[in-house]
From TrEMBL:
Pfam families: PK_Tyr_Ser-Thr. Residues 43-320 form the Protein kinase domain. CDD domains: STKc_IRAK. It comes from the Eukaryota. ATP binds at K71. Keywords: ATP-binding, Kinase, Nucleotide-binding, Serine/threonine-protein kinase, Transferase. GO terms for molecular function: ATP binding; protein serine/threonine kinase activity. This is Protein kinase domain-containing protein. Belongs to the protein kinase superfamily. It comes from Colocasia esculenta.
Length: 386
């Protein structure tokens, strides 16, 4: 009998600190369910700050006064204690200024709860892209700081952490903001806490379709280059202040990436910069950022720059090389996929409507029609080395 099963039996599916240490999980506090229940006032709906595909998120205050975000993973994530902790190990020791800090977890009975540093200024999806729901102002300087910060956080996950971490879900709702509007990437490594065939994964990907690299959406190839594609889309959203897809706009304007490519060809990129800036921005820099976005979203993954190169291009340390720039992997490709997979879409739509968990704060005006075919492709994901 392994050491694990001995402890497992004795503790009836809860774990203790020495077990965490034995599993190689450091810097993570083990919270009791009771403690988190108290911190969130019995997981009161008043303290619920969001709901994503992984489950509900509550604001809480620990006994020592620390504010925390308590993410209660949904029932589909009830994988075994060992599997859960094994995946937790990959994220528990990762710390960086631009990554949300994981304080600890709770593993008791069927509960799987993650406890994070609480970020007071919400996510980019709810603030910058939140259709006037927030009072926060995003000056051009603040936007450059946010873009560079996200790029640095992602470069760290991709190139410094060993083995490297592919985020899988870079998007505006996964960029949280601290009191000084510094960006912190959330949910890195989280997809791996779920069994690959869990149904909630479909709903999680549902809000994300506009960020999916073509090779990921169509072939299930998940590499760092897929994250870089998503980052490129996010970069364009930050510069333009617009969601990547908006079905309420005229047809030629609905897909941000398509629009930006057209403007690039006409040498009119500056026209897409957020009008809320009232012209108060560095036009040369803003166009450079958009060009970096176009490079990141190239159809061929090998043509996308690495994240460390992206950081240098954004900070101006490296020239944005436009020589081999081709048309990016466009939404039109998804439309082709949609036609080819019509039947599967209809089947998935059924599953979609019977499931819950789509973020209550998702501002993306995507229809459920768009969202369902992403779910079927997600099941085919494989991690690859590059
Ligand atoms: N550490 C945190 N501090 C403050 N608010 C947070 C924190 N983590 C999450 N939230 C809030 O909870 C909301 C839901 O987060 P969650 O990650 O569950 O869903 P999501 O990001 O919208 O979608 P997905 O499940 O695809 O990641 C976020 O949009 C954010 O407003
Ligand atoms: Mg999230």
């Amino acid at each position: 009998m392994s050491c694990f099963s001995f402890i497992f039996k004795r503790k009836k599916s809860s774990v203790d600190e020495s077990f965490l240490n034995a599993e190689g999980i450091q810097n993570v506090t083990l919270y009791s369910y009771k403690e988190l229940k108290l911190a969130t006032e019995d997981f009161s709906s008043l303290n619920r700050i969001g709901e994503g595909g992984f489950g509900s998120v509550y604001k809480g205050r620990l006994r020592d006064g620390k504010s925390v975000a308590v993410k209660v993973l949904s029932s589909e994530s009830r994988q075994g204690v060992r599997e859960f902790l094994s995946e937790l190990r990959t994220i528990s020791n990762i710390t960086h200024d631009n990554l949300v800090e994981l304080y600890g977890c709770c593993v008791e009975g069927n509960s799987r709860i993650l406890v994070y540093n609480y970020l007071p200024n919400n996510s980019l999806a709810q603030t910058l892209l939140g259709n006037g729901c927030s009072d926060l102002q995003f000056s051009w300087r603040t936007r450059t700081k946010i873009c560079i910060g996200i790029a640095r956080g992602l470069a760290f996950l991709h190139e410094v952490v060993k083995p490297h971490v592919v985020h899988r879900d870079i998007k505006a709702s996964n960029v949280l903001l601290d009191e000084h509007l510094n960006p912190k990437i959330s949910d890195f490594g989280l997809a791996k806490l779920f069994p690959p065939n869990a149904t909630h994964v479909s709903t999680r990907v549902a809000g994300t379709i506009g960020y999916l690299a073509p090779e990921y959406a169509m072939g299930g190839q998940l590499t760092r280059k897929a994250d870089i594609y998503s980052f490129g889309i996010l970069l364009m959203e930050i510069v333009s202040g617009r969601c990547n897809t908006n079905k309420r706009l005229p047809v030629e304007d609905q897909f941000l990436l398509e629009r930006i490519w057209t403007l690039h060809e006409r040498n009119e990129l500056v026209l897409i910069v957020d009008p809320d800036l009232n012209g108060d921005f560095d036009a040369e820099e803003a166009c450079r950022y958009l060009k970096v976005g176009l490079l990141c979203t190239q159809d061929a993954p090998k043509c996308r720059p690495s994240m460390s190169t992206v950081v240098k291009m954004l900070t101006g340390e490296q020239k944005v090389d436009m020589e081999c720039m081709a048309k990016p992997g466009l939404i039109a490709d998804f439309m082709d996929l949609k036609i080819r997979t019509q039947k599967k879409v209809e089947d998935a739509a059924l599953a979609y409507t019977s499931s819950s968990g789509l973020s209550a704060h998702d501002n993306s005006p995507l229809s459920s029609e768009n969202t369902t075919y992403a779910s079927f492709t997600f099941t085919a994901i494989s991690d690859r080395g590059d």
